[in-house]
Amino acid sequence: MRQSKLFTKTKKEVPTDEVSKNAELLIRGGFIHKEMAGVYSYLPLGLRVLKNIEKIIREEMNAIGGQEITMTALQNPELWKKTDRWEDEKVDIWFKTKLKNDTEVGLGFTHEEPLTNIMKSYINSYRDLPCSVYQFQTKFRNEARAKSGIMRTREFSMKDLYSFSKDEVEHNEFYEKAKGAYKNIFQRLGIGHLTYLTFASGGSFSKFSHEFQTVTSTGEDTIYVDENKNIAVNKEVLDDETLGKLDLKREDLVEKRAVEVGNIFTLGTRFSDALDLNYQTENGDKKPVFMGSYGMGPTRVMGTIVEALADDKGIIWPESVAPFQVHLLSLGESEDVKKEADKVYDTLRKNNIEVLFDDRSEVSPGEKFADADLLGMPFRIVVSTRSMKENGVEVKKRNEEKGKVISLEELLNLIKNV
RNA sequence: CGGGGCAUAGUGUAACGGUAACAUGCAUGAUUCGGGUUCAUGCGACUCUGGGUUCAAAUCCCAGUGCCCCGACCA
């Protein structure tokens, strides 16, 4: 992609109506556009990041047998009345609207009800179990207070997977697999070292759930981390009984601020009972399906990565999610340099390396460097009279201070081997 | 949902109750080319909305709306 053609532009000034680091950097870099409080559009660079995050999540969900579908945002109240989650007194974050004929519909904030209902058409026998189904979908939550840029919004993308098992034993097997998949995901997203499996409240479903909490100073949650055991406990369930059960000692715990980037729940038969999702056992008995739910928001993950990894110059994208692997800068107006930069651009693309090419003329080197730091691609490559004198291109990683000049072949090897 | 703050060119900020300014951005022309280079000229605002006070309101008062922050909530 030639930066001269990219319709978004970077901004020097920080938006006054955003304080959070993720919103500031993502807006200044032109990754997102704010429509209103808690509602953001994703522009070309931002969408690329989001797609990369989704891809990783999708691969890991598929790896544990998840089957992808897409459900509707519009929700039929009848289903939600059966589980007692329609009334505003029970769920205060509904967005509700009406059809022309005055029938009420809701905008989904989660999808246990519709999916459980769908599965009634397909799960009849123990032979149909276990199975798991997921989607990426826009969720709507009428939050009393949206905050922290894209971390807590009213409209956001979420991957939600639901598991269906014969009983708790079978469920627990899948639950452990899902836990492993989540760990893989955060590892691949470049925030694994900051993300802790965290014991948290199970809400109305069960005693505990597991959250994945990424440590950042701006996090909403307070967690207590046992750094040796690599697990944490959410403040909301921190008491002696819990610690005893988890075999943790208070003096081993360190308090940290963190962002909840994933949450996995044992639902049990709460939804299958209410909506009549049953199956027949080998000997013909009828039993409710045992369920679990597994959420993760790509948009929130994106914000978390920015919050956790950025420095004072801008964003630092991990290679796995960066909109482009390489930011190629052409410095100066010399025709030789321009020609050489074009050649490097073509070579990189021929080798299937995604590259943002800052081919803008009449933009000073300083401005290009500043933009490269702000936009945060993993590799910055400079073509200039200086680099040409040394018969190569200058390469610098975003998190390194100094670059070095290497040949084009060396560069290709370097990038391909990451 | 409780509390606090803010609202002025695209963006960031100024302006005693008296013709709305500066920076940035954008346009044009020079200049420069390894860390947001320098200069000239120009474009760009019913000062959030509605009321009120006043000869006169961006400025004072009231109401509304929007945005940010703290807290509560967070299936």
Protein traits:
five-stranded mixed β-sheet, 418 residues, 12 helices, RNA-binding
Question: How would you characterize the overall build of this protein?
Answer:
- This protein is of the alpha+beta class.
- It has twelve helices and 21 strands.
- It has a five-stranded mixed barrel with strand order 9-10-13-11-12.
- Helix 1 (21-28) crosses helix 8, helix 2 (44-63) runs antiparallel to helix 5 and helix 2 crosses helix 8 (298-309).
- It binds one RNA strand of 75 nucleotides through residues 9, 11-19, 36-37, 85, 90-93, 109-110, 112, 141, 143-145, 147, 152, 203-205, 220, 260, 263, 265, 267, 293, 329, 331-334, 363-371, 373, 382, 384-386, 394.
Secondary-structure-based class equals alpha+beta
Q: State the share of residues found in helices, binned by percent.
A: 25-40%
Low-confidence stretches are none
Spatial extent as radius of gyration? 24 Å
